[in-house]
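Tokens help. One example:
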Amino acid sequence: MKVLIAANYDVGLYQFRKELIEALLKDHQVMISLPYGTLVDPLQAAGCTFIDTRVDRRGLNPVKDMTLFRQYHKMLKKNRPDLVVTYTIKPNVYGGMACRMKKIPYAANITGLGTAFQNEGMLRRFVTRLYRSALKKAGVVFFENAANRQLFIDLKIVPEDRAVLLNGAGVNLEHYSLTPYPKDGPVRFLFVGRVMQEKGIDELFSAMERLRDEGAECTLEVLGGYEEDYADTIRRYEEKGWLRYHGYQLDVRPYIENAHCFVLPSYHEGMANTNLECAAMGRPVITSDIPGCREAVVDGKSGLLCRPKDAGSLYEAMRRFLEMTPDQREAMGRAGRQRMETVFDKRLVVAETVKHLERNGSRK
């Protein structure tokens, strides 16, 4: 079977789907369609055929995005895949429409709903209509949390029998192996993600300022590129001595190993992979009580949940963590690792995904 995978970014495809691609390559020919980035190279080395495809990741302009639709249409006509697999909204929508027009079996992945679905309004109605059209003939639509799946069913975007729930992308338990818990102090909190409001960065900075003003001995390590203008804010907190900014890092494992606790107060997620990765390495997780975050944590046992968009609630969770003994923190991290082994093992997620993809591709 000839499988075409359409995505918008090499980093996401490589970091979170590499094991799935490797599994597909065992029995199938795999083509990948996305903008070129350096992590395309190892995927080509593994056996994928690369199709350089321009995808504007910002904004949603149907007139402008028709160029992407035409790219997909020409690509399908030229390469004639037996199955197309799409990730993120633009490949899902415009790739799905092209597949529907060419009558090629396809599977879509809803890795998160983004800002369009956060509020009722014209944008949400517009995106809903786009998704209804694009996914009408999809053989299977994968979701990373139950709330997103139910919303698409309720909005009549996808029928229940074609909506499949996965445990996110899973986590590679060998790559993110259990590491010894730090014995030194002060407590080092860690944030990994895009530095932007919707990741809860404002609430995190507010909670840290309050803790430090009260004399708490803790620091914050921040990894990730700027999505919004936080340079001056970060520089100010670095000068105060409690924040260290490391920018984007391809390999986050050394930073996770050095941390006492991971914090992600996000507003919305499909499934927060950083929560899974940090828990797999034995680090407690403080995160928002929202779909896509809460699944990674057994509240009070493997981590702590806080209310989204609530700096006070986040402060309370972080203060509670600081009041724990080192042994309690370490036990919390071990419980997180155990949950990853039981629920989020990437091998199980990949096997489930391949089963549905091969079933869908065989219907041609």
Summary: The first strand starts at residue 2 and ends at 6. Residues 52 and 210 are 48 Å apart (CA to CA). The radius of gyration is 21 Å.
